[in-house]
């Protein structure tokens, strides 16, 4: 049943109010709204806690085939300092025996020093932990430092100068677009990714809710009663506005919690006894939050209109699952291209992706937060998205107007074209 219409209120506003209150009063709305902040805190705390328990050390045997046999012992000593269990291989020429020891869980892997070392050659490693990026980085660094030290000694460099020459150079990346100070490059990347992920999940979640609501009302024949009280265009607009208002409220809560979590990351990790590290989180200005919310609203309207049209075209949930796939792919494909924007936000590919209305709702806020978009590009992207949303909404309204009372066989492309011209 529809909510009773009050005098002076347009149909779409009454329907929007009904859709909003129906969802906000649901226990699941409260659960999901609260679950978002919990997951955000978990994404900050859990990786840090797990990182403390991860052991990147390994049991390694070193096969030294260098002519001087100096590289292998030096590598074993260096790995021992790092708490690795390393030793020279007892049978350096029998790699099959070494692989059997890996299979029998006696060692994790073995390192082969080539005959050209330390002057040249490729050092190889075979082991069950070769996919551990951190362990392989440690091993590569040890081999590099040992080889460089032996080359320096062979060149006659005194030991008192060797340490200073091979000392690592501290390196820190600061993200800035020209202003003083800046922020941690990794923190800026995480903030951008978080904004993209929140927008993607919120847009797809609430746009699909519009589809399910339309299909449910068609299946239960409730829509026939609603059409008698309001025009189909008002039904579609009210449904999109009501569900969108719920999404906007939820996204605002999530964005606010994300800002607080990043701002007080050090204090949050301190509660669990974890050092936050040298992270300078980029400050989120009012314009940054506004950009995220505006793109959510525009992106939601863009995709919700298409999902409402899909709901009007089908008569069951099974049909809806099939027909909505092409629409869902329009939003999935940009997510697969997110690395292009994250790694080079000023590139031509990033500009193109953030101007196309199918991808700009999730990629443009990320590019903006990374400092890759100018105000002019932001305005142009919004203008294109607004114009595209108007076109899509008009086409979807025509399909919705005819399809909302159609049952049985799905319309063909020719019939859809006739609906749009009707």
Q: Can you give a write-up of this model?
A:
There is one protein chain. Helix 1 crosses helix 9 (232-263) and helix 7 (185-219) runs antiparallel to helix 9. This protein is elongated. The chain is 66% helix and 5% strand. It folds into 2 domains: 11-41 and 183-421, no CATH class; 59-169, D-Maltodextrin-Binding Protein, domain 2 (3-Layer(aba) Sandwich), CATH 3.40.190. Mean pLDDT is 78; it is low at 1-5. It has helices at 11-24, 27-53, 71-81, 95-103, 133-154, 159-166, 185-219, 222-229, 232-263, 265-271, 286-313, 317-323, 325-336, 338-343, 348-353, 360-369, 375-403, 413-421, and strands at residues 59-64, 85-88, 109-113, 124-127, 174-175, 183-184. By secondary structure, the protein is mainly alpha-helical. The two termini are 29 Å apart. The relative contact order is 0.11. The strands form 2 sheets. The protein has a 4-stranded mixed sheet with strand order 2-1-3-4, with helices on both faces. A two-stranded antiparallel ribbon has the order 5-6.
């Amino acid at each position: 049943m529809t909510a009773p219409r009050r005098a002076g209120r347009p149909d779409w506003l009454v329907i929007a109010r009904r859709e909003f209150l129906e969802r906000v009063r649901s226990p699941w709305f409260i659960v999901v709204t609260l679950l978002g902040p919990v997951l955000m805190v978990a994404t900050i705390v859990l990786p840090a806690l797990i990182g403390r328990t991860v052991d990147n050390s390994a049991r390694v045997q070193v096969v030294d085939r260098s002519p001087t046999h100096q590289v292998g012992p030096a590598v074993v000593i260096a790995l021992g300092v790092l708490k690795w269990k390393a030793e020279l291989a007892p049978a350096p020429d029998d790699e099959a025996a070494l692989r059997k020891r890996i299979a029998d869980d006696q060692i994790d892997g073995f390192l082969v020093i080539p005959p050209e070392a330390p002057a040249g050659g490729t050092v190889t490693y075979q082991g069950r932990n070769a996919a551990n990026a951190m362990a392989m980085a440690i091993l590569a660094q040890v081999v590099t430092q040992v080889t460089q030290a032996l080359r320096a000694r062979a060149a006659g460099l005194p030991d008192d100068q060797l340490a200073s020459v091979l000392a690592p150079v501290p390196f820190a990346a600061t993200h800035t677009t020209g202003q003083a100070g800046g922020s941690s490059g990794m923190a800026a990347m995480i903030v951008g990714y978080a904004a993209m992920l929140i927008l993607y999940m919120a847009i797809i979640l609430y746009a699909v809710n519009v589809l399910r609501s339309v299909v449910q009302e068609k299946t239960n024949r409730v829509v026939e009663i609603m059409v008698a009280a309001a025009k189909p265009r008002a039904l579609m607009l009210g449904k999109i506005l009501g569900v969108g208002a719920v999404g906007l409220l939820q996204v605002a809560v999530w964005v606010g919690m994300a800002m607080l979590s990043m701002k007080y990351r050090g204090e949050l990790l301190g509660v669990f006894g974890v050092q936050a590290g040298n992270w300078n989180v980029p400050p989120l200005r009012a314009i940054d939050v506004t950009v995220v919310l505006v793109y959510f609203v525009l992106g939601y309207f863009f995709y919700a209109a298409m999902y409402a049209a899909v709901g009007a075209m089908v008569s069951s949930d099974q049909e809806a699952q099939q027909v909505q796939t092409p629409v869902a792919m329009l939003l999935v494909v940009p997510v697969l291209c997110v690395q292009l924007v994250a790694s080079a936000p000023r590139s031509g590919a990033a500009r193109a992706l953030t101007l196309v209305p199918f991808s700009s709702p999730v990629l443009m806020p990320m590019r903006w937060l990374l400092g890759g978009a100018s105000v002019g590009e932001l305005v142009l992207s919004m203008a294109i998205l607004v114009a595209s949303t108007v076109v899509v909404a008009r086409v979807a309204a025509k399909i919705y107007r005819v399809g909302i009372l159609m049952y049985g066989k799905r319309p063909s492309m020719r019939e859809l074209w006739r609906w749009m011209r009707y």
